[in-house]
Amino acid sequence: MLDYTAMILAIGPELWLAAAGLIGVLLGATFKDKFNALAFKLGALVLFAAAAFSLMNYQGGEAFNGLVRTNTFVNFAKFVSYAIGGVTLMMSEGFLKRHNTIRYEYALLTIFASLGIGMTLSAADLMTLYMGVETLSLASYVMAAFHRDSIRSSEAGLKYFVLGSLASGMLLYGASLVYGFAGSTQYVVIAAAEPSVGMMFGMVLMIVGLAFKVSAAPMHVWTPDVYEGSPTPVAAFFATAPKMASMVVFANVMYTVFGGIIEQWQLILSIIAALSMIIGSLGALTQTNIKRLLGYSSIANIGYALVAVAAGKEFGAGPLLVFMTLYVIASLGLFAGVLSMRRKGGMVEGINELGGLMRKRPWLAIALSVLIFSMAGLPPFGGFFGKWEVLNAGLDAGLLPLAVILILASVVSLGYYLRLIKIMWFDEPTEKFEAIDGSVTFTVIASAVLTGVVFLIFIYQLSGWAGNAAAGLAI
Fold first, then answer.
1. Phi/psi of residue 239, each to 5°?
2. Distance (Å, rounded) from C-alpha 466 to C-alpha 35?
3. How far apart are CA 53 and CA 218, in angstroms?
4. Tens digit of pLDDT for each residue in 142-191?
5. Has this prediction a pTM greater than 0.90?
6. Cβ–Cβ < 8 Å for 213, 173
7. Residue 146 · residue 163 · CB < 8 Å
8. I need a surface site. Which of 31, 137, 243, 368 has the fewest CB within 10 A?
9. pLDDT at 298 exceeding the cut of 90
């Protein structure tokens, strides 16, 4: 018989999301367009409730004969991912309404993508992992092409689908090799299996597939195009909730499945981290579209996060959670800032369109400046402490070359971050932006307050929470 208590402890939020999504499909089929506006509000509440359920069952559990297993490490990531997913859904309604593309399917796709996030985080078996990855990916492909009458959006969805399918194939082929040589798909059995050449090939292919999902170089080529072409709320979602979850899943797989052979993959991850930091930082220098710039910035930041993963479970698990939490909050606020760039002719995305923003809308300029400084890792803003934790993790693990590249890449990144500051504060004013939705305004200000004030004061508490969450990996 099914142990319902164990199921709720292990995957209560995912059961809730699955039920809510299916009920949403039924309501949408029944009420059709009348359900459009309500779907976004209900969808956000569903995601916030899932975040709350993650905290209620924070210690986690195991269910379905070991197919799913959760602990404090993954539940920390679930809470952040679901909460931010709810915020991105709140920001989406006004944007889609103005573009005459508001449909209840968008809210349901966000819920099912979040279900995929939860499944990947809860996975304790390669089959569960792949099911979660594909649930997230299939919903994401449709979301990227949601503006089906837009050539840019359709192109973004097609590129994401083609390259994502290739990466999923690599992940699946790598998982099949690991299964063949380990004799099981369960994480604990694979971890106890005798390493072999075939298993190492499988591990490398899995790393390639997972690196694509987090947009790490050299599997990063989809990121700038998809960020630019996707509707801005979709790009905001891609850059935050799935990014947080995918990095934690990447770390969980390496620490749990291949933790005993860290010497076999540490160099591989170090190379990927170095390439991501270099390519992301240099690639962003020449961008004139702010969404493409944020796409390259995300590649560089994933490189910083991979330094923590390469440092191993003992040194890197806690710093990874701190860094990713601060990064996704700042990224969410910056994409909300992009959503505020609207004039009578429609949305604008050029960096120069921010000219003279301080004189036209000072509160927005100040909030965006705080977020940019945090993303750049300048003290005393929250992003500095995230990079500091990652840097210390790399040094403690003996990864001195990576630490040096991290510092140099951060210095290079000042070139494009400070360019944004210069345009907003000192350039000649451009045409004034239209008024923005209350949810977008709230997101920009709240993100700036969190990264610039709250986490500045409570950074040690955040680091403590992350450290306690990372301790769950030992259970």
1. -80, -5
2. 39
3. 37
4. 999 998 888 888 898 999 999 999 999 999 999 999 999 999 999 999 99
5. yes
6. no
7. no
8. 31
9. yes
